[in-house]
What we know:
mainly alpha; disordered N terminus
Amino acid sequence: MTPALVRALLRPHNILLLLSLPLGWSLCSAGTVSSLALIPGTLLMYLAGVIIDLGDPAQRAAAMQQAAARQRQDELELPEDLSGAYRGYAAPALRVRDRVQGYLDSADPTTRQMLNPLAPQFDLLVSGVGRLATKAQQIDRYLGSETTKELQRQIEQFEERLSAATDGEIRAHLQESCAAIRERLSTHTDLRLALERIRSQIESVVDSMEAMYGRVVRIGVADAARAKEERQPVTDHINALLEAIEETDRHVSQIAGVSRSS
């Protein structure tokens, strides 16, 4: 008896099947069961369990990888508080990532093993896009409907009132109000630029993900030597995109930090 067979026999469900054999024989001997159908059925169940347990390790590993990929695909979602237009900005990244994962799930084991390291990187891109979209949504909510021109018009009005004022206390109040609006205008301008930077960054990442999906498929149908050569540029491109996302995130966080402290 081989070690693999011994391990298979000791599996819990196989032990239960073995224990059921004497019971099946006793029932048949006592006339409780009118035929010996129970014994062949039990034996078939038992043998099926052994065959499953003795299956190809590579197939079992591939099945486990697919199950893990499906679980990861189910778990990866955009932030819950992301809504409206900004969920629309980020959603294409998730769709591309799902298409990549679907291709990997349907690929042959060799191709899947070679390309699977790319799957977590696409996950990171989706997470990065979701994080940027969330910040863009927060900035947009802060800015509201207030425009740069409106703030400039308020400053001009306070300056006109300041020029006409003669009372010292009134002039001091107007100067404080004018300074506060100028600060809001500066923050408003910086955040508007940050918002546009985030939007353009998300669009660039999504377009690049679409292009890389095509490259992943092309790698999958290439011969082994060429596939290995072409996989590295995809990895490098993804890493560059992740760094660009982090740089944009740092830039926006720095602006927000200055705005809060000023």
